[in-house]
Structure formats: structure tokens, C-alpha cells
Design goal:
The chain is an alpha/beta fold. The protein has helices at residues 13-28, 41-54, 72-82, 93-100, 106-129, 140-147, 164-168, 181-190, 195-198, 218-235, 286-299; strands at 33-36, 58-64, 87-91, 133-135, 171-173, 242-247, 252-256, 259-272, 280-281, 303-308. It has 2 domains: 13-198, Rossmann fold (3-Layer(aba) Sandwich), CATH 3.40.50; 212-308, 2-Layer Sandwich (GMP Synthetase, Chain A, domain 3). The protein is 41% helix and 17% strand. The strands form 2 sheets. The protein has a 5-stranded parallel β-sheet with strand order 3-2-1-4-5, with helices on both faces. A hairpin with a 7-residue loop joins strand 8 and strand 9 (280-281). The two termini are 25 Å apart. The mean pLDDT is 95. The structure holds xanthosine-5'-monophosphate (XMP).
Length: 321
């Protein structure tokens, strides 16, 4: 890998911001760039950096893939409005669910999401806004895991030998490529993002699709969305690196009101980690685990079983697909 990591300790913040702003600004020149804000740490930081560098030459969108958490598009857009950044919501739910229909293999699902983002949605946005560049927050860990063949992160394009200009009709600028998550959080703070944004637990590009084992349908995403809201509510005070719900493919036998209930299974994961390269499950209090089981099985219709993952990364990965 030719890209050289800048460690958190080695990051000279003001120099980095100035250098990257200049690079981005001179690449885009008199033209325009677009970017997709998801509200995750990386995309929030790159949106702020991009606006600092490009001002009105950057148009930011929130792509509503139908795979986001409850109320997320509106919440993130409202937050950025308070920072003086206008973000337009694009409804692309149909495109994503059409592309995911019938797919159960994790890498096929990731590929479907990547293609929908880059070849369909971005390509259209770039064309409509007459832009030549897409600005995105790919980080060092994303490249490392994709190049090592562990998991294709949805935003890795050029490092896989794909020329975005040829394939999709635009160039990609990635100012965060040399940084890992802790350094990106520091950069977010330096760029005056609210703490809620730069401290946010990571959320994967494929969004809730990374947390549905088997076919990703609107109905199945809704189940994991409801379970995720409960897990986030119960565990946000834990201080853990990342915590979420996963919907399993297999059903199991449960019992409700004395009758068999062949229902769905939710797995809860909660990780201690610094940069997602390795991880260990959080030592959650037993009553907190029981509360999760009780709330999920009573509030999410059709779920009869909740498990807690007790595997380290490696051999597990943080997400399930
Ligand atoms: P894994 O599951 O590979 O996750 O151990 C490592 C970190 O990356 C996030 N993740 C992703 N982020 N696109 C992303 O932007 C992806 O496809 C993706 N897969 C995993 C994950 O949430 C964790 O923080």
C-alpha cells in the first residue's frame, strides 16, 4: 500500500487542515464537487473540511437509502443547518432495495450497495449539479481491510483498480485517506463539529444492511432499525466504541401466552476498541443485558430471542456481514 498513515500523535492539525484545504480547492478549481453526508464521523468531518475548502463549490447531499437509523436523515440535516451547511435529502430508497432484492451473500450485498451509490445515485447527482468531483471520507482502515481482502468497504474504488472517471464519469477526492478514526475525531473537534458528531460511534457505509443477515428487505430493515434504537438507547451511556443490533436469518421457537411463537433472533454487539482493527466485547452488567432482552422482545414485533456476542475481533469482525 503506497498511502502512508499519519498517526494521531503525528498529526499536525493546523498544517493538515491547511494543506488538505488547499489540495481540495486547487483540484476542484473553478468547478464543483458533491459529497454525501451520512452523519458518521468520517463523512461529517469531510463535509466540514470540504465546506471550509470549497464553500459554495461543494454541494452536500444526504442519500436516504432506506437503510438509515430512525429519523437519521432529518436529524443530521438539521444539525448541519445549525453549522451553516445546507444539505439536501435525496430519496433513493427504491434504487437501493431494488438492487438488494434476492441477495443474501455479504459481498454481493456490499457490491450492490457500492454500485447503487456510485454508478446510479452519485452519477446522477454529479450530472445534475454539473460537478466533476465527489468528495468522500475514506479512511486508512477502510483501505487496509479491503486490500487485505477481509471485507470490501463500500467506499473503496481506486484502491481496487477501478477508475471512477471511466466507470462513473467523475473523480473522487479523499482527504482523510491517511488517518484512522481517533485522528479523524481529533480533526472533527479542530473543525468545530459538535461533540455529538465527532464522538459518534462509527456507523458503516452500507448502514443497516450491514446488520441484516440474509436478504435486505424494507420489512427486515425495519426490524433491525427498531432493535437498533433500543440498543442505542440502553447502551449510549456505556461509553463503548460501537453497539448495535443484528437481525439473524434463522428463526427459532419461542413461546408467548402459552403458545408456540416461531420468531426472529436479534444479536446485540457492543465493542471496546480504539480503531476497529481489534475489539473485545464490553463487560456489560447482567441487568443491562436482561433489560435489552426484555425490551427488544416486547417492543419489536416478532422477535423471540436476543443474544449477546462474546467474541473478540479477530476472529469476529465488528459488523456481521
Ligand atoms: P469490521 O466489520 O470490518 O468493521 O470489523 C470495522 C469498522 O468499519 C465499519 N465498517 C464499515 N464502514 N463501510 C464503512 O464505511 C463498510 O462497508 C463497513 N463495514 C464495516 C464498522 O462499523 C467498524 O467500525
Amino acid at each position: 500500500m503506497e498511502i502512508k498513515e499519519i498517526t494521531r500523535e503525528g498529526l499536525l492539525m493546523e498544517d493538515f487542515i491547511q494543506q488538505k484545504s488547499q489540495e481540495v480547492s486547487s483540484l476542484v478549481g473553478d468547478g464543483l464537487a458533491v459529497n454525501a453526508l451520512s452523519g458518521g464521523v468520517d463523512s461529517s468531518v469531510v463535509t466540514m473540511l470540504g465546506h471550509k475548502a470549497l464553500g459554495r463549490r461543494l454541494k452536500s447531499y444526504f442519500i436516504d437509502s432506506g437503510l438509515m437509523r430512525s429519523g437519521e436523515p432529518q436529524h443530521v440535516v438539521a444539525l448541519f443547518k445549525t453549522l451553516g451547511v445546507e444539505v439536501e435529502i435525496i430519496d433513493a430508497q427504491k434504487q437501493f432495495f431494488d438492487a438488494l432484492r434476492g441477495k443474501t451473500d455479504p459481498e454481493e450485498k456490499r457490491e450492490a450497495i457500492t454500485q447503487t451509490f456510485y454508478a446510479l445515485v452519485f452519477a446522477q447527482l454529479v450530472m445534475q449539479s454539473n460537478a466533476s468531483y465527489v468528495l468522500q471520507g475514506t479512511n486508512y482502515t477502510d483501505i487496509e481491510e479491503t486490500v487485505a481482502g477481509i471485507k470490501r468497504q463500500h467506499n473503496i474504488i481506486e484502491q481496487l483498480g477501478i477508475d471512477p472517471q471511466k466507470e462513473y464519469g467523475y473523480k473522487i477526492i479523499e482527504p482523510l485517506l491517511q488517518l484512522r478514526k481517533p485522528a479523524i475525531r481529533d480533526l472533527g473537534r479542530a473543525l468545530k463539529l459538535p461533540e455529538e458528531l465527532y464522538r459518534r460511534p462509527p456507523f458503516p457505509g452500507p448502514a443497516l444492511a450491514a446488520r441484516v443477515i440474509g436478504e435486505v428487505t424494507p420489512e427486515r430493515v425495519e426490524i433491525v432499525r427498531q432493535a437498533t434504537a433500543i440498543v442505542e438507547d440502553e447502551l449510549q451511556a456505556s461509553g463503548a466504541f460501537q453497539y448495535f443490533a443484528i437481525l439473524h436469518e434463522d428463526r427459532v421457537t419461542g413461546v408467548r401466552a402459552g403458545r408456540r411463537d416461531f420468531g426472529m433472533q436479534i444479536e446485540v454487539r457492543c465493542w471496546e476498541s480504539d480503531d476497529a482493527q481489534t475489539g473485545i466485547p464490553t463487560n456489560l452488567p447482567y441487568d443491562r443485558l436482561l433489560a435489552l432482552g426484555t425490551r427488544i422482545t416486547s417492543e419489536v414485533l416478532g422477535v423471540v430471542s436476543v443474544t449477546y456476542n462474546i467474541t473478540r475481533k479477530p476472529p469476529s469482525t465488528i459488523e456481521a456481514i
